[in-house]
Amino acid sequence: LDVKSIFLNGILQEEIYVDQPQGFISKGNEDKVLRLRKTLYGLKQAPRAWYNRIDQYFTNHGFRRSKSEPTLYIKTQS
User: Fold this and answer.
1) Which of 33, 35, 34, 37 is nearest to 11 (CA)?
2) How far, in Å, CA of 51 to CA of 49, rounded?
3) What does DSSP assign to residue 37?
4) How far is the CA of 77 from the CAs of 52, 63, 74, in angstroms?
5) Where does the record place the Reverse transcriptase Ty1/copia-type domain (predicted)?
6) What is the mean pLDDT of residues 44-71?
7) How many beta carbons lie within 10 A of that of residue 20, not counting itself?
8) Which residue range is the domain that position 63 belongs to?
9) How far is 7 from 54, CA to CA, in rounded Å?
10) Per-residue exposure over 25-58, b if at least 16 CB sit within 10 Å of its own CB, e if not
């Protein structure tokens, strides 16, 4: 799990479209919009997508979420 670029790798739960970035607009397609496949820095959905991804990571690795603090994960050894 690469936490340095986590906001760039979140899976979106809804369809989000953006205008083409300056410098990447192709002639004849000036009005074209692009659908995001993953989150970007500054996108308001990015923190939620990050939380969902890290929650899945911890859950898959044997941690359980605290009932009183949902951002605290606990791993017990049997």
Assistant:
1) 37
2) 5
3) S
4) 24, 10, 10
5) 1-76
6) 92
7) 14
8) 3-74
9) 11
10) eeeeeeeeeeeeeebeeebeebeebbeebbeeeb
Residue whose entry in the numeric block shows the structure tokens 């009183």: 68
Q: Residue 29: phi, psi to the nearest 5?
A: -125, 35
> How confident is residue 1, by pLDDT bands cut at 50, 70 and 90?
low
Question: What is the Cα–Cα distance from 58 to 73, expressed in whole angstroms?
Answer: 7
- Give residue 20's region: left, alpha or beta (phi > 0; psi -120 to 50): beta
Phi-psi domain of 48 (left: phi exceeds 0; alpha: psi -120 through 50; beta: other): alpha
Instruction: Tell me the C-alpha distance between 59 and 52, whole Å.
Output: 10
Question: How many folded domains does the chain comprise?
Answer: 1
